[in-house]
Design goal:
single chain; alpha+beta; H-NOX domain; 2 domains; 5-stranded mixed β-sheet; 53% helix; transcription; DNA-binding transcription factor activity
Length: 349
């Protein structure tokens, strides 16, 4: 084991990355509605439907969830089935987070709450909410080494749009959709569902809402109930992610490094902290942002060298280095081996 450990092992240990039981249950309802029996798929993935029903606040290991999605794709032979699942997911299935949406002041505020507490739904990706004067975007950043089905991304975006429509948003609601997934054989399914342009093989996963259409809604706007529901959600998320601040920062860095080096202010905002507070919290743990950034770069590089055939130059760029030479020098200082030498030691003998 290396100085910082194998990224894949760190990412996938125990139930660190999981999703709410509502998701596999919604998939089961969708399968049955379209004439499929989910029982054998659940068994193949070591999932117990009755146990999920009895514990709706429970969690499902993301590895099992991704395997379940893969089984769904094989059985239905429908690469757009994730969009259909959204028709069987309701806000109340997401427990206190769904109630928090209903009691928010506005539809836009409700969507922002989902972004803030998205870890309750799934902590196996990171969620960014981008805002412009005309648009509000949900951006899903995968975490290196954590298996996520493209159908899960489709389903989450479709569910967000459906929730907004159910709560009174007006059409046309979506301005554009960006998906990392390659262009499917029948892209029209996505364009019909979102009623908007869909860009495949994009640089990010992003669902762009038209802010003007979010001014309408049928929400309760109950301040007292909203405060109570938010406290329940906060307690749930806190219990789910009892990681140190250093670990939380590294998770965000690993998810976003490929798109460019995240500024500390952006990371602090995603943790609902000021930059000053985040620096103080890290100091209390004997860490610094620059140190975590370097560790994250090295973890990502180590993962790609061990588990992919990407060139050293590609790995350098994905890990946030300007070129292969700077990457090789930094890697050699860290591991006492060049990237090429390191990769050779991982080959089977």
């Amino acid at each position: 084991m290396s100085r910082i450990g194998l990224l894949a092992d760190a990412m996938n240990s125990s139930l660190k990355y999981s999703t709410l039981a509502a998701w596999p249950l919604a998939i089961c309802r969708a399968l049955e509605a379209h004439g499929y029996d989910p029982a054998s798929l659940l068994t193949d993935c070591d999932l117990d439907r009755e146990a999920l029903v009895q514990n709706p606040d429970g969690r499902v290991d993301i590895r099992l969830m991704t395997r379940f999605w893969d089984q769904v794709r094989q059985q239905t032979r429908d690469e757009a089935f994730g969009l259909k699942v959204a028709d069987y997911a309701l806000p109340l299935h997401f427990r206190a987070l769904g109630l928090l949406m209903h009691t928010a002041d506005s539809l836009e505020d409700a969507l922002l709450k989902i972004g803030r507490y998205a870890a309750m739904v799934s902590n196996s990706v990171t969620i960014r909410v981008e805002q412009t004067p005309a648009s509000l975007a949900f951006c899903i950043d995968p975490i290196a080494g954590v298996p996520i089905s493209t159908m899960a991304i489709d389903s989450f975006f479709a569910t967000l749009m459906r929730f907004a429509s159910q709560l009174g948003a007006r059409s046309p609601l979506v301005a554009q959709v960006e998906l990392l997934r390659p262009r499917p054989t029948e892209p029209a399914s996505w364009e019909r569902y979102f009623e908007a342009p869909v860009i495949f093989s994009a640089s990010q996963n992003a669902l762009w809402f038209r802010r003007g259409q979010l001014k309408h809604g049928l929400l309760m706007g109950d301040e007292r109930m909203a405060a109570y529901n938010e406290s329940v959600v906060q307690a749930y998320v806190a219990g789910l992610d009892a990681a140190t601040f250093g670990q939380q920062v590294k998770r965000l860095l690993l998810a976003q490094l490929e798109a460019g080096e995240p500024a500390i202010g952006s990371v602090a905002s995603q943790l609902n902290l000021t930059e000053r507070s985040l620096r103080r919290r890290l100091r209390e743990e004997g860490l610094s942002y620059r140190e975590l950034l370097q560790q994250s770069r090295m973890e990502m590089a180590e993962y790609y060298l061990r588990h992919t055939t990407l060139s050293v130059t590609d790995i350098a760029l994905r890990s946030g280095f300007a070129d292969a030479s700077n990457f090789a020098r930094a890697f050699t200082r860290w591991f006492s081996q060049s990237p090429t030498e390191f990769r050779k030691t991982q080959l089977p003998h």
